[in-house]
Amino acid sequence: AQTYAKATRDHPLPTESDGGAPIQFSYGTAGFRTRAEILHSTCFRAGALAAARSLAHGGQTTGIVITASHNPARDNGVKLVEPNGGTMPMALESVAEALANASEADAEAQIAALGEAARMVDASAAAAARASDRKPRVFVARDTRASGRALADAALAGIRAMGVEAVDRGVATTPQLHYYVLATNTGAPDAEADYYARLAAGYAALTEKDEDDMTETENDTDNFPPLVIDCADGVGGDKLAGLSEAVESYGLRFDLRNRGNAADSSLNDGVGSDLVQKARTPPMRGGFESLEPGTRCVSVDGDADRLIYFETPRSPGEPIALVDGDQIAVLIADFLGEMVREAEPYLTDVRVGVVQTAYANGASTKFLTERLGEPPACVPTGVKHLHHKAEEMDIGVYFESNGHGTALFSPAASKAIEEATVEALTQRAMPQVKALLALTHAQRCINPAVGDAMSGILLVEAILRVRKIKGSIANLYYTDLSSRQTKVVVRDRTTIKTVDAERTCEKPPGLQEAIEKILDDEGREKVRGRAFVRPSGTEDCVRVYVEATDEATVGRVTDAIVEKVRDLCA
Ligand code: G16
């Protein structure tokens, strides 16, 4: 306790330059995130918190990533990783906030919060923790932000102040660090090269041609042009180059742009998936305007945990064709669903489900409802919500529209696939064996810990090759309704409270009624109008989402709601 008390005093809370009220840190959608210069104490304490989580799990390794993902370069933040590679339990968020906000002189309050974090484990994890006699350890990684080195050092100091081993894993994408943590705890190799090798092997196996394919369409799928990738001038630039080397020999080539190494590079600024998805424009740098019309491209975000596809305009003045997270989810769910069906009767009782958020385009929800026979699950924004929901499914495909997502296979589903493969092989039921092997290989191609742009790209590219889809993949299954997402800056965004997976606004009074009236006045049913507002958990703004059959209606509804938000949250 004395060592910790001394060390925390060396990492004091920031003071506002105007000498005003102390800054309050809140645990947002994806952890702590704000201006980098005020984050030193938070990173120190988050390091200590990750150390406490390692202690809670009997010394299994935990992790911390210093990143502000899609935010501008001046921001930074903290994402915490549990021993299973997942995000910090939501029940700990208030403890993390109490820890982050306690005064540096009040080491007792901090130690109390850390004690609580070191005790909180669910029943199954508690059993594993008791069985583990490992030396507690925390992995620390950071993205490419200039502030990252110093903040990672603060986190490393926080871990060591807890008497726990701190391992600096250097610069990595968020999903890489999640993977390293999961791998080391499950006895799998956890070097960067192992991560690439695993994903590449999954891709290679999934796309390997059998003899029929060779004679039918000789080399057809080898002729895919290089995939053009916008790396957002972030950590993906370097890391996708590493992946590229691992997959090149299997015929998958990348043309990497905005790698963060040019004189005019600027993280997430005019580039990256957040811009492309929200503004429906190609990245402003990287020469996207001179690509052939209809070229298939990918854009990732600053820490490479999101991916969205887009196709360059077919003719001048036209917008890009966007393939957002909703469309990617449908592509993946449809492929996995087909493999499950083709594996019958050897594989039974395995169902593919989908998890979305309120941002999911209504056309995707309608399509999935018809396809699955029930509406997809809808949860609040944040990977932590989607991931947990998907864990309840046999095979759970989750994606946010902004490109965060993956497919999760439950342990029972993985086992059923393995057993069915043995059975089908014994019976020499080759069509079923082929489908079952596709399900096995897909699992290898997927980062099992968390949504990952790099593994997402491999999975999508593999599916396109298996299905021999070379042309446009935009609106393959349904046509998106027009939609728009707008940011509104208000005095205090926390005055807005939402319920029903953020689809209804409970506070401030009158806002939801106003939204309903605006939609009714447009003839909601006829224009398939839908709208909601919610406070961002990563930026200081309120987000307004509107969709309808046409752009003009979306524009009018957006303007009217933005005005109401400004009025009622002033
Ligand atoms: C983070 C979360 C995502 C979320 C996004 C926007 O993304 O991980 O789940 O969709 O923020 O959240 P909000 O609308 O609350 O600002 P990232 O890529 O920035 O880590």
UniProtKB/TrEMBL annotation:
Broadest EC class assigned to this enzyme: isomerase
Recorded catalytic activity of this chain's protein: N-acetyl-alpha-D-glucosamine 1-phosphate = N-acetyl-D-glucosamine 6-phosphate
Positions of the Phosphoacetylglucosamine mutase AMG1 domain: 324-467
UniProt entry tagged with the keyword Isomerase: yes
Protein keywords: Isomerase, Magnesium, Metal-binding, Phosphoprotein
EC assignment: 5.4.2.3
Record flagged with keyword Nucleus: no
Stored CDD domains: PGM3 (cd03086)
GO MF annotations, alphabetized: magnesium ion binding; phosphoacetylglucosamine mutase activity
Residue ranges occupied by any Alpha-D-phosphohexomutase C-terminal domain in the UniProt entry: 513-563
Stated name of the protein: phosphoacetylglucosamine mutase
